[in-house]
Amino acid sequence: MAAPLEERFRTIRELHPEYRVETVQGRIVVNEAGTWQHNTSLFRVMRALFAPTVERGWQIWPNITIHLGLQSDRYVPDLTVVPRSPRLHKEYAVHGDSTLLIVDVVSSGSAYDDYYVKPRGYSPAGVPLYLVVDPAQRTVRLHSEPGGLAYGRETIASVAEPLFLPAPWELPLNVAAFW
């Protein structure tokens, strides 16, 4: 008899701490370290978020599991911004509704999950803002106003326009700086 998904997830996570291990629609997904393009995009997003995050006393966490509920998947986004004292599920997992912003940089293997699957998991878990950065398309997609199975608002910005992060951020992002 196969071990429950949560047990297999924990085992793989412990065996491969250098990888991002997540469960997505009942699949265990092991992600290697990003390419230089992926990491460059991630750095540029982090650079844009760093000063406002520090000013507010928040933290940027890479490689933290997002707890979406007891019977739900476990996603590991590229970046998670959390308040001073976030509510943790385990030492490696923060509750989705205790985050301030989640960021994923799209790679060739993650596009479907980042665009379609993860927003449907984050919204019911109360993740307030989910930012999807796509270097290939040079677009940024912000999911906001979580409720039920889908976010109430999706805003897409390209290189020519800034993207406004709503409360608690109240921050315009210069999307052109991501490329």
UniProtKB/TrEMBL annotation:
<dbReference type="InterPro" id="IPR011335">
    <property type="entry name" value="Restrct_endonuc-II-like"/>
</dbReference>
<feature type="domain" description="Putative restriction endonuclease">
    <location>
        <begin position="11"/>
        <end position="172"/>
    </location>
</feature>
<protein>
    <recommendedName>
        <fullName>Putative restriction endonuclease domain-containing protein</fullName>
    </recommendedName>
</protein>
<dbReference type="InterPro" id="IPR012296">
    <property type="entry name" value="Nuclease_put_TT1808"/>
</dbReference>
<dbReference type="InterPro" id="IPR008538">
    <property type="entry name" value="Uma2"/>
</dbReference>
<dbReference type="Pfam" id="PF05685">
    <property type="entry name" value="Uma2"/>
</dbReference>
